[in-house]
Amino acid sequence: MARNSILFAGTANPPLATAIADHLGMPVGACTIEQFPDGETAVRLLEPVRRKEAFLVQPLSPPVNSHLVELLAMADACRRAGAARITAVVPYFGYARSDKRHGKREPVMARVVADLLETVGIGQIVTLDLHAPQIEGFFHIPMDSLTAVPTLCEMLRTQVEEGTAVVAPDAGALRLATEYAHRLGGAVVVTHKRRETGTHTQVTHLVGDVRNKPCLIVDDMISTGGTIAACMDRLRQAGARPHITVAATHGLFLSGAQERLEREGLRNVFVSDTVGTPIQWTKLHVVSIAPVIATALKRFMQHRSIAELY
Ligand code: R5P
Question: Atom 10 of ligand 1 has which residue's CA nearest to it?
Fold first, then answer.
């Protein structure tokens, strides 16, 4: 591990930052992060960063806005203290679903976040399974979107029987489903959903045959669980076997998600540890993505390509 690098953790997922640091054989840099009574964020780096490459590990998980402000504050502190380069490791990129205007007079928040991150001097971004790949184009700095799919597939290999349908719960997840099917085998099926409320979606179409088949539903994220729940119901109506496995990179599991997902026939849910998953559930299996991120960071330090990690 190069002496000229330092890694700091925001408060969003310290265990992941520690696991990445352990893989790199370096400690997590000391810093204090507090909230003043008025809600302002106060950050102080307790170690020198001058001429160092600083890695800031902070997924933009809930509470998204305060985790974002923390990351901005940490980056600004690094910049003002003379860091040579600041790399934001943002395993889960909050606001990624706001990648375009969904209606008139709406903002494009992913672009706003990109601008903010660049403004405070961040010179490089590392993320995972970005909800919309085109967000990369919102940045003028290098952005690498790594993937949890190979890591999750290692866990899934023993779960997925022959003849499993790999299901994308919406068109946006098709690329991921194709990648899972390529690694695990199985035909790709897609459903089309209409979002009725923040927590409730309605499946309007199903393309592909799931009759008497076990299913693996894959998505980039599970937030309220509404998308996966509606997809499971539709698959069962279409005659799928009551043998459903779910895999997603980001397991946010907002309040009520477990209850929404709990169904007869749901066997297991696999997610990575990009965000600190807030629930304990016997069906939930969390696999660490720290080795993938650490490998990428090590290669940055060695000025090597990370192409084969994609
Ligand atoms: C949407 O396009 C995403 O890929 C996910 O399907 C969605 O954000 C999951 O959210 P929820 O779990 O709240 O339905």
Answer: 223
